[in-house]
Amino acid sequence: MKSNIMVLDKLKLMRRHTVHPSSSKTSNLTATRGAYGSWCTPQGTPTHDILTKTVSNIETKTKVQDDTGQHRDKGILALQKVRLFTSSPPPKFNNKKDAKEKDTELKDFKKTYSRDNSLKRSPDRKLVPIIETPQSPVPSSPSRYKKCKGLTLPAFCDPFVPIDPQGRGYISWLLLVTFCYSYNAWCVPLRATFPYQTPQNTALWMVADYLCDVVYLLDVALVKPRLMFLHEGFWVDDAAETRRNYRKKLQYKFDVISLLPLDVFYFYFGAHKVILRFPRLLKLQTFWEFHQAMDRVLSSPYVVRVGKTLFYIFYLIHLNACAYYAMSDYIGLASNGWVYDNKGNAYIRCFYFATKTATSIGKNPKPENTAEYLFMTAAWLMGVFVFALLIGQIRDIIATATRARAEYRKCVDGCARYLRRLNLPRALRRRVACWLHYTWTQQRCFDESKILNSLPFNMKRDVALAVHMSTLSKVQLFRDCSASLLRDLVLQLRPLSCLPGDLVVRRGDVGHHMYIVKSGECYVMSQDEKEILATLREGSVFGEISLLGIDGLRRRTATVRSRGYSNLFALSRNDLDAALKHHKEAAQILRIRADQIIRENAARQTKQRLAKLEAKKSANNEESTARKRRQSGASNDSSQGRRRRSASTMSRRRLSAVSENKAPGDDAPPSVKTPLPTIVALSSE
Ligand SMILES: Nc1ncnc2c1ncn2[C@@H]1O[C@@H]2COP(=O)(O)O[C@H]2[C@H]1O
């Protein structure tokens, strides 16, 4: 509430200032339904904007009433828009069910968004209050400024449209002005000292000169006065204000002096007195401004920095060469051993001399008079101090550019040395090296929190959200819960890289972390690790069951392995507990899901046990039927055998009776050898 009042007060104070929204890029993130098996797999994707609403915006939730209409009528107020939220479209969902809003803050965001939109469209409420971050002011409705009737000029060329100092148009313009400045900076001393401006080419030089002057003039008269500027965090685009702001600056004075038309004295001194154009060299601020802008815009600003330093070095040598030629000309070309001997290309020879004297002592032409001694002393001093400084600067720039890589090398070397000293197996050492390399290629750092630590908390959180948004927006948990859960957790997520086959969690271990798959795939393995229970892909969550301690389960219920290379986010038990304390709905969702997995796993295990029992039972049945069959087969065999044996015995007896003249059946029956029952033999195997 307090913050609301403060913002309102500030806005009242800022009445003359117009505030612009940043580039209203719309987010295309639409809901995607992945073909994943796990509950925790991504289904829909809320837009980045909705989840990342600039923290300060969300936290303050300031709503400023639109009182601008009446004030504008009175011509008092230039305040136009105070926007609460960015103007991205609402998330699209694949099906109606997904589109149903949960009772979360996302819903609130959407409401605010639609309210914002409807206000924009309503004809009687043209002005919508907008609070904007100062990063990139882009006029929200340039047509508002277009007063050039009948002309359809691009915004940059329209003299009534304020200019975004970070926009492409302005940076391109700075490039043009910098080019003109460089032309003047190099050509004025060159033409003033060397005999390169002749009566034949004077006209050409003059055309180039005056084209540059036109650019200078346009810059001072039409571009710089329209530049929007930041005032207490608000972009001011009021024409009178921007003009006043420019005129207040020292740059304006230099810009005006740089346009002094001293060339009129050509009529008196002649067009060869190019030194009269010296004021053009005072527009140095634009040159610096251009480099600053490029430094901000380019992804590798080191190139710009090295380029600027090299420009200084070459320019100093150029000035030195011009001074050497001027002195030689003054003393008399080829008049002694020190001056330019008037042979070869004058500029190249003098430039060579200037480079040599600036970078080395000794083996240079010996000065022969006081002026030459003074020149050489100045050249050497410039070499020692200025050049040493500039070359040192280049070394620093390159060191800064490669610092991260140097740190990586240091870390890898240190680790390798340590492992070798411990005499660890070569395979393990290779694995560690592989992990270091992979983590580096993925993250370009080993601890990103170190990099962000210097930022204020909210900004750090916004950066982390922006960096990890593509993954986090796919996590179903964050979709189902309030957006603040994501903001609470995003800074606690620790990136983790896994190599192919790496064990992320082991069944039976005590759980300390929960994981989110950022990229790659992980397998949830069955108890015997022979079966894959689930494949977890980007946006999937796992390892929560042992953290929640459902049914007293504090240990991992399954083993999870990384399939190939995978990148995960790890969230510690303490951080999760702290977040769940304030997000009961998330705790409930996690618990329900965990319950579901536990039930599924239990059902699967019971099913497997039953299947095993069934298999055993059927094996037993088969065995017993086989046994019976064998037994019955054996009894048949034995009765037949017995019959066969008794028959043979009878025949033998008959034979012996015949031989001994005994009647068959006179003897006692012989003991019959019964064969062993097959079952006995089988069971004993
Ligand atoms: N059947 C399953 N499907 C998907 N994920 C599972 C399955 N079984 C276990 N998990 C996950 O694997 C994790 C192993 O550690 P936790 O028991 O802490 O939490 C477990 C679940 O997140």
Automatic annotation (TrEMBL):
The protein's matches in PROSITE patterns, at most eight in alphabetical order, are given as: CNMP_BINDING_1, CNMP_BINDING_2, CNMP_BINDING_3
Which parts of this chain are annotated as the region Disordered? 86-107, 612-685
Family matches, as CDD domains:
CAP_ED
Record keywords: Ion channel, Ion transport, Ligand-gated ion channel, Membrane, Transmembrane, Transmembrane helix, Transport
Q: Name one GO cellular component term.
A: intracellular cyclic nucleotide activated cation channel complex
- Is Ribonucleoprotein set as a keyword in this record? no
Q: What is this protein called?
A: (apollo) hypothetical protein
Q: Which organism is it from?
A: Parnassius apollo
Organismal lineage: Eukaryota, Metazoa, Ecdysozoa, Arthropoda, Hexapoda
